[in-house]
Amino acid sequence: MLLHAWLLLVALTTLTSGINPGVKVKLTQKGLDYGREIGIASIQKKLKTIKLPDVSGSQKVNPIGKVSYSFTNMHITNAGLPQSAVSLVPGAGIRLSIGNAYMSLNGNWRVKYLKIIKDSGSFDLSVSGLSITTTIAVNSDETGRPTVTGNNCAASVGDVSIKFHGGASWLYNLFKSFIAKALRSALEKQICPLVADAISDANPYLKTLNVLAKVDEYAEIQYSMVSSPVISASSVDAGLKGEFYNVGKHQEPPFTPAVFTMPSQSSNMLYIGLSSYTPNSAGFVYTTAGALSLYITDDMIPASSPLRLNTQTFGTFIPQIAKQFPGLMMKLLVKAGKSPVITFESNNATIKASGTVTAYAIQANGTLSPLFVLNMDGSVSAQVFVSGSRLAGSISLNELNLTLGTSYVGDFQVKSLDRIFQMVLKVVILPKLNAHLAKGYPLPTIGKMKLVNTQLQILKDYMLIGTDVQFSG
C-alpha cells in the first residue's frame, strides 16, 4: 500500500484558486503519524527490492601480484526501519526522517590469481546506521486532484560489516574494506530513487479523490481545490470548494461562502469543517431543478387518519368547497417558492423555507379544478450525523405559518386549515424528506478511506467533524 494512506490524507489539502472555501480540512500531527506508520512499512518493503549490480575488477597484491575478483548474485535478505519521524516544514512540504535503519544481503565471491589459481565462496553483508531524509511536495494536476513527489532526498550508510564463507581465509582481508566501500556507494545510490518511487506510487490512489461526487439524479458535489495549503508546524490547513451543482450543469448560486475559522484541535487525525454554504448550495440546486415539489393524494395519508383529502373533509372548514365540488377527491401540490436557508448556531441547525400549497378538486374525468393557493412559511430543526463516509440528517417541524394567496371558492379562514396541513407535513412530507436525508451526501474521501471515532459539532456558521481514519486495500 506504499505511502498512499498517509499521502491521501495530505491530498485533501492541495488547492489552487483564491475564493473562500465552503469546506475546510485540517490534517493534524496525529494524522501524519498514522500515515507514517503505514508509509514506513511500505518503504521497508520497497527497500527489499534493491538489486545491486555485480562488482568486478582487479587489485595488485604483494607478493602474489594481480588478483582478479568478482562479487555476484547480491540480493537483500532483510531490511528494518526501527526509527522514523514525520514533520511539517512550513512553505515546503512534509519531511520524512528515518534513522538507525539496517539491511542485510548476501552474494557470491570469486577470485583468480597467479593466472591459474581460483577460489570462491559466499558472503553476508550487514548495514547499520542507515539514515534517510526526504521532503514530500504536494501539488495538483490538471483535474484539480493532488499529486506528490519526493524532493531533496539524502541517504547515508553508517557501518558495513562483511562475513566471508568458503575459500582461503587469508584472502578475506584483502577485500573487506574494498567491497564494503563499493557496496556502500551502490546502496546509497539506490535508496533515494526507491523512496521517490514509493512516494510516486501514491499518485494512482490520489486520483480517486472524489473531486466531483454524485449525490443523486439531481445533484453532485464538487470538492475541487480553492487555495494553496497553509502548512504550519502543527497542522496542514486547506479549503475545498464544497459546492453542490445540478448534474451536468454548473450554475453558481447567488451567494458566496462566508469566512469561518477552524479551531486548533488536535485529538483526531483529521478535521473537516463544513460551512452553511454547502447545504445552502444544495437547497439552491434542488430548487432550481424543481425537485422541491410534491403532489399529495389521499392514498398517501394513513388509513387510520380521520382527515381525508376530499371535498367533504375540506368542506367542513370551507363550506363552499363541498357545495361547488361535492363528493370529489382532492390533490395538493406543495412547491418551494425559493431556496431554503440553513443557519448554524451553537448546537443548533435551523432551516427556514417558504413555498405554496395549491389545492385541486379531481373531476370525474381527471381534470384538476383549482380551489385555493396558500403561501407557506415555516422552519424545521435539523439533526446531523456522520454515517460511514457520508453526512446525513433528519428534520422535525418547528413552526408553520399559512396565509391565503389566491382563492377560487371565496374568502375563508386559513387558520381553520392548520390542523390538516400540520398533519400533511408530519405524515407525508417530512418522512419523504427524512428518507432522502438519511441517504446523506459524500464527504471528501480517497480510495478505501474509512472514518472512525467520529464526532460532530454544530458551531457558529459551520459544522465541525473530528475523525480518525483507516485505510484498507
Integer tally of domains: 2
Q: Hey, roughly how much beta strand do the residues contain?
A: over 45%
User: Can you tell me the residue ranges where pLDDT is under 50 for at least 5 consecutive residues?
Assistant: 1-18
| CATH topology title of the largest domain | Bactericidal permeability-increasing protein, domain 2
Number of helices: 8
How many distinct beta strands? 23
The CATH top-level class label of the largest domain: Alpha Beta
What's the structural blueprint in terms of helices and strands?
Elements: H1 4-11, E1 23-28, H2 29-47, E2 55-61, E3 65-80, E4 83-89, E5 93-113, E6 117-140, E7 146-156, E8 159-165, H3 169-200, H4 203-206, E9 212-214, E10 219-222, E11 230-231, E12 235-240, E13 243-246, E14 270-275, H5 277-288, E15 293-297, H6 311-317, H7 319-324, E16 330-336, E17 341-345, E18 348-362, E19 368-387, E20 390-407, H8 418-439, E21 441-442, E22 449-459, E23 462-471
Antiparallel strand pairs: 1-12, 1-14, 2-3, 3-5, 4-5, 5-6, 6-7, 6-8, 9-10, 10-13, 11-12, 14-23, 15-16, 16-18, 17-18, 18-19, 19-20, 20-21, 22-23
Helix pairs in contact: 1-2, 2-3
Overview in brief:
The chain is α+β, with helices and mostly antiparallel strands. Helix content is 23%, strand content 46%.
